[in-house]
Amino acid sequence: MKNAFLFSLLLSLGTASQAQNDSTRPGTIRNYTGKEVDYAVKLDEALVKDTRAFSNDTARYRFNQTKYYVTTIWPYVQEAVALVNEVDYKLNVENLSGKKRRNYINDKEAEVKAKVDDKVKSLNTTQGALLIKLINRQTGKNCFNILREFKNPVSATMWQGWAKVHGFNLNEDYDPDKEVLLESVMRSLGH
Predict the structure, then answer these.
(1) Does any domain span residue 125?
(2) pTM, 2 dp
(3) Higher pLDDT, 78 or 25
(4) Are 83 and 112 in contact (CB under 8 A)?
(5) How confident is the model at residue 189 (pLDDT cuts 50, 70, 90)?
């Protein structure tokens, strides 16, 4: 008897909720005139952070080492990006050409050398490679094209040769699909 009562109660609740669902579709509401109106809610992007699960200690070491290197070189990346944007703006907006252009670029180059030359020279090879990749990532231009645009093709080729001897490639564009570890580190740092 009790089971029959519970069964009939559940059955009546199920049909009542089904009848309610038939009157309106999910994702719609009825306005004051009784017509169905679709609605949508736009949510802000949410970054979900959790403790990272590494497959082994080597993966953990590589991630932490890359993160340390990125935090070490990040001020230089910001300085380089700001300089590239400033010089690009100055050259394109004010239409500097000829001697004025060379003098402006040489003055900026001397200013940067005085400010960060010793610090950048003290970076190790891996940090130098990351510096090049992050400048590419942040500016959207590879370093070879930046040098060719601001200095000249001969200077850019000379620096590309020096970079090749030391294991870099200034002419390589940044590809987030190839640089999974670096991209993961940058996202974990909020960049």
Answers:
(1) yes
(2) 0.69
(3) 78
(4) yes
(5) confident
